[in-house]
């Protein structure tokens, strides 16, 4: 009994020490913690600033009177869309301490842009001093996938990152704005038409930072600057018709390449969660 009372206090810490050394392996190092996979969901506002570009439009005459000069050739016009706010959402999987993949969607508001002075003067000099301003509007919808790099340890409260990837951009709600009326010898005529922007695949890159609310908090604030390479074709189907007779007089189609290339500045809130595998 006396020996038992002596050996138990001595052998218990010795057994624990031996057990820990055995679990550490031959080298005597403790095994690393199981890897953590972190997921993030972010949502917020996106301030989208498109590129201003001088576009060369080529004319493709469709129909008109026999004595009408159907060769309007090519002319240049500035396409300068307004900056607008939209919204974004993205999901991210941080598979390792420093690498992640993410998928994002950005829905822009209606951009209006384009200098109508070049269009009107080309169509008819009498329009030169009349209605001027934006000639079209459209909404961009951008989907992008990224491979991201995090330089800091996951335990840091501030997490900067950078990423590269690809984007697919589509345009909706394209409208040709009111081009005005024209009075030709007491015959009221209207110049109108439709505009179409093609979809596009391109590259994209981003830099951003997550501000975590605390080590034990799942919530964060996100700031990011994103560049999208978007080289799209812009086509305008224009027609001039007589209002009284509701009859088309001339019809033309103009097309050119437009570098939309927007910057998006995102401000959002995020939620993260993780699990061990």
Write the layout of secondary structure elements.
Layout: H1 2-24, E1 36-49, E2 53-63, E3 74-79, E4 84-94, E5 99-107, E6 111-113, H2 116-123, E7 136-149, E8 158-176, E9 181-184, E10 187-197, E11 200-212, E12 219-228, E13 231-242, E14 247-259, E15 263-276
Antiparallel strand pairs: 1-4, 1-15, 2-3, 2-14, 4-5, 5-7, 6-7, 7-8, 8-11, 9-10, 10-13, 11-12, 12-15, 13-14
Structure description:
There is one protein chain. A hairpin with a 4-residue loop joins strand 4 (84-94) and strand 5 (99-107). The chain has an eight-stranded antiparallel beta barrel with strand order 1-4-5-7-8-11-12-15. Strands 3-2-14-13-10-9 form a six-stranded antiparallel β-sheet, with helices on one face. Residues 1-8, 10-25 and 120-133 have low confidence and may be disordered. By secondary structure, the protein is mainly beta. It is elongated. It has one domain: Beta Barrel (Porin), CATH 2.40.160. Helix content is 11%, strand content 59%. The longest helix has 23 residues, at 2-24. Keywords: Signal.
- Let me know the largest β-sheet: 8 strands, antiparallel, barrel
Strand content: over 45%
Rg is 31 Å
* Helical proportion, percent range: 10-25%
Query: How would you state the average pLDDT, rounded?
Result: 75
- Name of the level-1 CATH class: Mainly Beta
How many helices? The count is 2
Whole-number total of structural domains: 1
Structural class: mainly beta
What's the CATH topology label? Porin
């Amino acid at each position: 009994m006396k020996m038992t009372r002596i050996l138990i206090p001595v052998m218990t810490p010795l057994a624990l020490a031996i057990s820990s050394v055995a679990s550490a392996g031959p080298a005597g190092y403790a095994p690393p913690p199981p890897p953590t996979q972190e997921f993030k969901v972010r949502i917020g506002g996106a301030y989208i600033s498109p590129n201003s570009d001088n576009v060369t439009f080529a004319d493709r005459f469709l129909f008109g009177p026999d004595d009408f000069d159907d060769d309007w050739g090519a002319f240049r016009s500035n396409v300068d869309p307004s900056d607008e706010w939209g919204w974004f959402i993205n999901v991210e999987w941080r598979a390792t301490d420093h690498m992640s993949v993410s998928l994002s969607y950005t829905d822009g508001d209606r951009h209006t842009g384009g200098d109508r002075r070049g269009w009107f003067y080309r169509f008819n000099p009498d329009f030169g001093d009349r209605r001027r301003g934006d000639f079209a509007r459209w909404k961009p919808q951008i989907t992008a996938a990224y491979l991201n790099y995090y330089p800091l340890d996951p335990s840091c409260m501030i997490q900067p990152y950078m990423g590269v990837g690809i984007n697919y951009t589509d345009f909706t709600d394209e409208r040709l704005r009111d081009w005005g009326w024209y009075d030709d010898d007491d015959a009221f005529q209207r110049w109108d038409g439709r505009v179409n922007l093609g979809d596009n695949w391109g590259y994209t890159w981003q830099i951003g930072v997550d501000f975590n609310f605390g080590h034990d908090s799942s919530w964060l604030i996100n700031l990011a600057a994103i560049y999208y390479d978007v080289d799209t074709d812009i086509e305008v189907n224009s027609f001039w018709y007589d209002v009284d007779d509701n009859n088309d007089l001339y019809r033309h189609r103009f097309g050119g390449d437009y570098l939309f290339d927007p910057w998006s500045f995102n401000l959002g809130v995020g939620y993260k969660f993780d699990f061990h595998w």
